[in-house]
Amino acid sequence: xxxxxxxxxxxxxxxxxxxxxxxxxxxxxxxxxxxxxxxxxxxxxxxxxxxxxxxxxxxxxxxxxxxxxxxxxxxxxxxxxxxxxxxxxxxxxxxxxxxxxxxxxxxxxxxxxxxxxxxxxxxxxxxxxxxxxxxxxxxxxxxxxxxxxxxxxxxxxxxxxxxxxxxxxxxxxxxxxxxxxxxxxxxxxxxxxxxxxxxxxxxxxxxxxxxxxxxxxxxxxxxxxxxxxxxxxxxxxxxxxxxxxxxxxxxxxxx
Length: 255
Prior knowledge:
single chain; alpha+beta; Arc Repressor Mutant, subunit A; Beta-Lactamase; 2 domains; 3-stranded antiparallel sheet; globular
């Protein structure tokens, strides 16, 4: 490993399951000499990306909190989407969680969510947590709108060649309907309804979803929630398009 890849390789080892590492353990995990890892850790500590922990170990540092705040304040999907999530929750009239997710590094990641005040459950989707790409409405509606070449590569890398045709048929149906509805594919007893938020010019493939107790919504409520989610996703995509065009024009003027 060299340069940025070495820093990234070390940082990716810090997870909720293994939150603290010593230099020798990092050296063993990365296959890099301890002296090199020590210098890498020293630089990461200086930048606030790592900080000392107990027993000569290190944990993630406060720089990530600073960057997370910047993302929350500047990510167009989050900035434009947060009020949309609030409106969806207010108009759902059922205990629910509304969320925005986007395609990221071969998986789907939630970037923002909002729960109704009376929601008695928690969804497995949470900001910053990568989720499976072929399960759940949130992920499937994103997968359905990926470019064909990118989709084929993902299927190949995931070892799903034997299920590719069935998946293509399901995704084609999702694209035709304009939404995806699933139940218990991620969390038992929870249903998800998702619609795409696509901005091709900006390379954005995202989804807006609502999650509720499957047994707590009847067919009439389900149809109403589908209309709510599809409409909200469409309005958000249009807002993002206007923001993107305005930013592009501003950049051209500066140039």
